[in-house]
Amino acid sequence: MAKVRFTIFVALIALGGIFPRIASAEMTSHLSSSSQPPYSLKLKTDLSLLALGIGTSIWGSVRYHDMEPRSELPAKSELLLWDRPFAGNHNRNADKVSDWMRLAILLPFAWEGYNWATDKSDGEEVATFLVTAVEIGLLQNGLNLLVRSFRLWPRPELYADADKDRGEAWGSFYSGHASAAFSLAVFSGMWFEEKNPESPWVPVVWSVSLSSATLVGVLRIWAGKHYPTDVVAGAFVGSLTSFAVLKLHETERVSLTALPGYIGFSVRF
């Protein structure tokens, strides 16, 4: 049954990836030849993204906090084949280190603050940076809580006699840490590259960001908090969220509209 539910969610995630691909196909490439900032705020799009992010976060949080433990631990044979060897992992030190690594979220904010203080970024760019970061954070976190609340399968540590009375421990899919880490990595890489397209530091920023995010995913597996499938899915959703949100701020030809019961995208040719 867990495999069936997993297949359904993979299909939903894949469908969710269609939108940024369609949108990006109609977007202009870079604004390096222009004096305008690489990204800009758009009232309709930003209000829609904020409303969508807040709504998803509230819905996901309510479902997540109402989670209850299942009565029985499923057999390891019911897990996905490549996840079975990791059932029973449990390492508290790896868990703590992965938690501390979340402080890396402060680095891009410190960097943009430095740019503002040294007049390398104006107020409009800083505002765009902050708003898009909030939108990405709300969306990726809300989606994660919402999906985890369906309790597709339990955390690996439950097979090592960890506390089975925590409802959230029964929703291992997908990794919130990996989603947050990769959303931050892609956000940092894309922002830096668009702002400094000729900088020799672009490959360094991308390498360090993605390597750090990958380390977070590895630590979550080692800690017994998630399976490889959870981490890969989290990396995909987090990366896709940052990519989509930033692309929506890259051109005036693409906009998002979110209303109760309706989500639409418009492209002007």
TrEMBL record:
Domain Phosphatidic acid phosphatase type 2/haloperoxidase: 133-246
UniProt xrefs under SUPFAM superfamilies: Acid phosphatase/Vanadium-dependent haloperoxidase
Topology in membrane: Multi-pass membrane protein
Transmembrane helix as UniProt keyword: yes
Localization terms from the record: Membrane
Membrane spanning stretches: 49-66, 173-192, 204-223
Record CDD domains: PAP2_like
Keywords: Membrane, Transmembrane, Transmembrane helix
Primary residence: membrane
Family as reported in the entry's similarity comment: Belongs to the PA-phosphatase related phosphoesterase family.
Protein name: PAP2 superfamily protein
Provenance organism: Hallerella porci
